[in-house]
Amino acid sequence: MSFLKPYSPFFLSVLRIASGLIFLQHGTTKYLSIPETRMSGVDPMTMGGAAGIIELVCGALLVIGLFTRPAAFLASGTMAFAYFLVHFPQNNIYPILNGGELAIMYCFAFLYIAAAGPGPISIDRILRRG
After folding, report:
1. Distance of alpha carbon 36 from alpha carbon 49, whole angstroms
2. Could you tell me if 106 and 100 are in contact, meaning their C-beta atoms sit under 8 angstroms apart?
3. Model pTM score
4. Digit-coded pLDDT (tens) for 84-124
5. What is the CA radius of gyration of the chain?
6. Could you report how far apart the first and last alpha carbons of the chain are, in Å?
7. At what angle do helices 47-64 and 8-31 cross, to 10 degrees?
8. Phi and psi angles of residue 39, each rounded to the nearest 5 degrees, phi first
């Protein structure tokens, strides 16, 4: 599939934006009740509430591509922490059975973005040019 190679920087931006939007949705449901779910109305002083703040702030930063590397690194660490604190202890090492597959995917996608950068479609890229 070498025909896609010239577009790989743009696909990095697409990965960042798409994963940031989905991550942001976790924060908006917790703090803005958009959409309203069983996680809505979380207490900010709980671990889920702290994660919600990170999801809201880092998700928004990732979508627009501002402070991309630190935001992605913090989001990655948050998802690793969530996996090992919430999912892994459920007496099953298989992520599909302990419900942790999304946390693992977020963790590694954000770790890649932290290493690779924001891609060409980002505020970081615009600021670096100026």
Report:
1. 15
2. no
3. 0.92
4. 999 998 888 899 999 999 999 999 999 999 999 999 999 99
5. 16
6. 35
7. 140
8. -90, -5
